[in-house]
Amino acid sequence: MTATIIDGKAFALGLRERVAGEVARFTAAIGRKPGLAVVLVGDDPASAVYVRSKHKATVAAGMESFEHRLPADTSQDVLLALVDRLNADASVDGILVQLPLPPQIDERAVITRIDPDKDVDGFHPVNAGRLASGLAGFVPCTPLGCLMLLKDQRADLAGLDAVVVGRSNIVGKPMAALLLKESCTVTIAHSKTHDLSSVVRRADIVVAAVGRPQMIKGDWIKPGALVIDVGINRTEDGLVGDVDFDSAASVAGAITPVPGGVGPMTIACLMHNTLVSAARAEGFALDEDAL
Ligand code: GUN
User: Fold this and answer.
1) Does the annotation mark 121 as catalytic?
2) Domain limits of the chain?
3) Edge to edge, what strands does the sheet with 64-70 contain?
4) pLDDT band for position 1 (50/70/90)?
5) CA 126 – CA 133 distance, rounded (Å)
6) Percent of the chain whose predicted confidence (pLDDT) is above 70
7) Whose C-alpha lies nearest to ligand 1, atom 1?
8) 98 catalytic residue (yes or no)
9) CATH superfamily membership of 141-263
10) CATH topology of 30-115 equal to that of 141-263?
């Protein structure tokens, strides 16, 4: 058996087009564009690339992009004052402070300062709590993208055994909460899990977010399982995921490649969250079926 290769790049492009369609409807009805503010502190080259991609995607979706670049030696007080200004600015629907931040700044202090209703990253503990309690909020972009890809493969996930490998606040924990909301039986595995291969072998859905190159082997995968690989690991052989793609693809029912799987979904979901934020702020009814 050979798995369906899940084309995250194509799905993300389609999502971005659907978001752009709803952005156009919003702008015509409300008389302003949804706005996303992205804050970059310092000049980490990888972060600069991400911020540039986010800016281009925001403009391409028909939204307003506000970029704030601050020097690497910016104090925490100056950054918090900028967050306060963005919180109070009615033209800003989404605020994203690019991580990591320089060592003199406490990331937790910055994330918790963002208005939870503008926290399109979904990193604020209030949004983590809303997700855990089934309330409307913002879901972090990467796990949201993973869920969209899974539901595109199989609309009804109820009753499936899902194993999330990794327990980060940004991916593992929110992913588990989303799968629970879909009525999966969810296991969160991590570095201390005993006999990880046996745990993964039970799963109808595997979400790998550990950051260890090709750790999950084909013989850990239940035949026909859906495999979502969040890993992006740079090795001598180039970019690889947390799943050993070649061996897993001969057993799985469907699997995301690296690159071209989960990666492109993250920015598309950021656009989605920003549109949702603007719609909530203005009481604008989105056509959820169009998204
Ligand atoms: N750094 C790497 N990925 C992300 C992200 O999704 N959001 C933020 N704020 N910083 C990041």
Assistant:
1) yes
2) 30-115, 141-263
3) 64-70, 35-41, 94-97
4) low
5) 10
6) 100
7) 99
8) yes
9) NAD(P)-binding Rossmann-like Domain (3.40.50.720)
10) yes
What amino acid is encoded at 266 in this protein? T
Pocket of ligand 1, candidates 36, 38, 41, 50: which has the most ligand atoms within 8 Å of its Cβ, to mutate?
A: 50
Tell me the C-alpha distance between 27 and 274, whole Å.
13
Strand segments (E) across the chain: 4-5, 35-41, 64-70, 94-97, 161-165, 185-189, 205-208, 226-229, 233-235, 238-240, 254-255
Classified as helix, coil or strand, 134 is coil
Look at residue 152 in the predicted model and tell me its pLDDT.
98
Structure tokens at 272: 């989605």
Q: Which of 93, 119, 121, 242 is catalytic?
A: 121
pTM: predicted TM-score of the whole model, two decimal places: 0.97
User: Residue 64: beta bridge partners?
Assistant: 35
Sign of CA dihedral 228, 230, 232, 235: negative
DSSP, residue by residue, 19-36: HHHHHHHHHHHHSS--EE
Q: Which of 125, 136, 117, 144 is nearest to 19 (CA)?
A: 144
One-letter amino acid for residue 161 of the chain: D
Strand pairing report for 35-41 and 64-70: parallel
Q: How far, CA to CA in Å, does 110 sit from each of 81, 121, 169, 218, 220?
A: 10, 13, 16, 41, 40
pLDDT of residue 287: 87
Which CATH number applies to 30-115? 3.40.50.10860
Q: Which of 33, 98, 118, 244 is catalytic?
A: 98
In whole angstroms, what is the distance from residue 23 CA to residue 272 CA? 10
Cα 219 from Cα 238, distance rounded (Å): 23
256 closest CA partner among 210, 211, 291, 206: 206
